[in-house]
Design a protein that fits this description.
Elements lengths: L1 E5 L1 E2 L11 E2 L6 H15 L9 E6 L7 H14 L7 E6 L6 H10 L4 E7 L3 H6 L6 H13 L5 E7 L17 E6 L7 H7 L8 H17 L3 E4 L2 E3 L6 H7 L5 E3 L4 E4 L5 E5 L13 E5 L2 H12 L6 E2 L5 H16 L3 E4 L2 E4 L1 H4 L2 H8 L2
Parallel strand pairs: 1-4, 1-11, 2-3, 4-5, 5-6, 6-7, 7-8
Antiparallel strand pairs: 8-10, 9-10, 12-13, 13-14, 15-17, 16-17
Amino acid sequence: MIYIHVPFCHRKCTYCAFFSKVESGKWKVESYVDALIEEIRLRCHEQNHPIRTIYFGGGTPSILPLGELERIVKALHECFDLSQVEEVTLEANPEDLTVGYLQGLSDLGFVDRLSIGIQSLDDAMLRLIGRRHTANQALAAVENAHALGFSNLSVDFIYGLPETFQFSAFNFQLVSHVSAYALTVEPGTALAVQVEQGRVVLPDEEEVIQQYHALRQQLLKAGFRQYEVSNYARPGFESKHNSRYWDRTPYLGLGPGAHSFSLFDGGSTSVAHVEKRRWNKPDGTFEQEILTEADAYNELLMTALRTTRGLALAQVPKKYKERLHCGMQPYVDLDWIVLKDNCFVPTPEGLLHADGMAAALFV
């Protein structure tokens, strides 16, 4: 698995806490690509087996000109075994997906899955959260991508916004995957300031839950299956890349601020140190954390309880099994968890509380 972080945005969304920059001054796409290609060549030894999935995330990867994306693809082919790649995803904003850009992506013959950040079909809400596209642009981007042969399309929506929540205008038959995220107010974001000052009033928890259930029912009716708290797919179109994150599959993260995960020494994570990294010459500066057995177990809880597969008892170290059974009982009583085929499986209601349950079960 390879994750490539593209740290550029046309402008910062008010809710976003990810590392991103507006292109200006030293933050130039061309110098970023130069540094990324050098990093690919320096770190290719960290993935000495065939790559199965590649994910361009951000930021806004669709901000990359096609020529720069082609340079990255060429470097990946030169440095990694891509003979067994099953899925290549590019995150994209609707305003970038012109017919010309989509045709260029198709001609490149590398990206086979688009993840389009729609977020809302209410133009007022889009302006509120800092998005540059309109609802009509979002609908056109999906329709054009589908017409040009992109059959593996994912779209992102946000619920928990102060709007009348409905997506009757969207044709779900055009897409194979939907990610639906509850709006979270991250410290330090523009949205956090707006909420604190009373300029934005968000719906209460009960309304957010109602929105979650409304969207869930609409997606199930349209033929999607929920396989993770925030993710729905038609059968066979689950995100292969993201599913491997939840299985704790090792992966290589490339680009400033990108995380990597390795099973070396029982498990370690690293993140490229943004401030100490030179654009014109990557200096290999990373922060690294070696995971303890307890850290690894806590990560297992956090990821497994967010999926509809749940937490398999076979994955749990023997020393934690009795504690787990005792800790799960209150959630079984609430019908948030069921024990099925030696797995603790969240119910639809339980998925809403997945993070809280996991945190309460941490060791």
